[in-house]
Design a protein that fits this description.
Elements (H helix, E strand, L loop, with lengths): L39 H35 L6 E6 L2 E10 L5 E5 L4 E4 L3 E4 H6 L2
Antiparallel strand pairs: 1-2, 1-5, 2-3, 3-4
């Protein structure tokens, strides 16, 4: 909680722009290795523009539903194999959606639908090999 009772959040991501680690238990790559002519500054500007647009959607009263819908329209791995590590346990299944409360929704191997508020998510081949 910030001064004046306001709330704040810090969001961080990591993007391999030029190089990538090779000693990981799963495949990794970089934007350069994928053929993208991009430097860190260009990436930062693109991410900043996208973040600003999502903040505008939120601030103009369209709220969470508009941001969620936009995210789902671009979501990688939707309908694919996924593994989620939660407190040392792994839940495997198919990535169904993100629900209205922004929880990860998967259909597990027994056909049950599970909603997960937080965990380490692995998609595709990484999900089947290791989580």
């Amino acid at each position: 909680i910030l001064e004046g009772g306001r709330f704040g959040v810090a969001v961080g991501i990591g993007v391999n722009v030029v190089a990538y680690p090779e000693d990981l238990p799963y495949p990794a790559t970089s934007l350069r290795a994928l053929g993208a002519a991009c430097d860190a500054e260009t990436l930062f500007l693109a991410l900043s523009d996208a973040w600003s647009e999502n903040a505008r959607l939120w601030d103009e009263g369209r709220g969470l539903a508009a941001v969620r819908r936009r995210w789902l329209d671009r979501a990688a791995g939707l309908g694919g194999e996924v593994a989620v590590r939660i407190d040392g346990n792994v839940v495997r299944g198919v990535f169904e959606t993100i629900d209205e409360d922004c929880r990860f929704v998967i259909r597990d191997d027994e056909g049950s639908v599970r909603t997960i508020a937080a965990g380490d998510v692995h998609f595709g081949a990484v999900a089947s090999a290791r989580a």
